[in-house]
Amino acid sequence: MGDGDGWADCDQGHTHWGRYGAAGLLAYHRDAEGQMWILMQQRAWWGLGGGTWGMFGGATHSHEDGVTGALRETGEECTLDTGLVRVRGTRVEDHGGWAFTSVIGALDEKVPVKPASRETRRAEWIRLEEVEDRKLFAPFERSWPLLRDVMKGLVLVVDGANVVGSRPDGWWKDRAGANARLRDSLQVLAEGVRGVPPGPVAFDHCFPEVVLVVEGAARPVADEPADGVRVVAAAGSGDDHIVDLVRAPEPDTDYLVVTADRELRARCEEAGAHVTGPRWLIDRLERR
C-alpha cells in the first residue's frame, strides 16, 4: 500500500480511486507486417469493472508523476519489463481536483506478458481493430477514441545552423562551439516537452527523439558523445539532409522541424513534416 491508495472526489462530483490521481500505460507494438498490437489487461472479477478490459494502471503516489506511476503500476500488475517501454507522451484527463494520466509507450517487440497480481485476470496483446470487440472498462472506453490516434512518436529535427544563427551571441567566431552548446542544451528535452505546436501528435507532455543536424565547420560536433540527442553531420547541405530525413518517415512517427528558413520550411511541409521556428525551441530551453 502506498500513500496514493484510497478514494478521492473530483469537482465533477465523481469518486475515483487514487488520492493523488491515477495513471495507466497504453503500450503498443507494430510488427513487421504493419499490424498494430495493444497490450491490455482484463481486470479481476472481484474489483471495480471486474472482467472488463483496459490499460494497466492505478493510483499514483504523492511523490510520483504520471509516467512513474503508470510504469510502476504496470510492473506490479503484469510481467512486462517496463524498462523496454519507449515513452512517447502523455494525455491527461482532468476532472478538477483529480486527474488520470494516460502514458503512451512503444515496444520494439511483442514480448510475452502474463498476470503478476490478483488485480489482473489476463494480460493479452490485442489487434488494434479488435479492441472495441472486447467489453471495455468504462473510463477506458470513453478515452479510447482519442488515445487510438496518439500512438505515435515525435522526432524533433533541429536545423543547427539556422537555430544557432538566430541568436547574436558570437556564434560566427566559433561555429562548432556554438553548435556544441546547442547540443548540450537540447539534452534537457529528453525530460519531456510541453506545448507542442499544432499539427504533430497531440500530447500534453511529449518525449521526443531529438536530432540535431550540423553542417560545414560544425560537423566535428557529431563525433562527440551526447546524451539524449542524436547529432548528424550533413555531408553536403544541411537543408538537403533534413529533407531526406523527413521524406522517409518511420511508421507511427511525426516529424517536427525547427527552422526559420522559408525554403526549407516549404520543402519539409511538402514532404509531410511539421515546422516551427527557433523561438518556440529557444523558449523551452530558456525555461530550464
Automatic annotation (TrEMBL):
InterPro entries: NUDIX_hydrolase-like_dom_sf, NUDIX_hydrolase_CS, NUDIX_hydrolase_dom
Gene source species: Actinomadura nitritigenes
Domain Nudix hydrolase: start-end pairs: 18-152
Protein name: NUDIX domain-containing protein
Cell cycle found in the keyword field: no
Keywords on record: Hydrolase
Key word Hydrolase present: yes
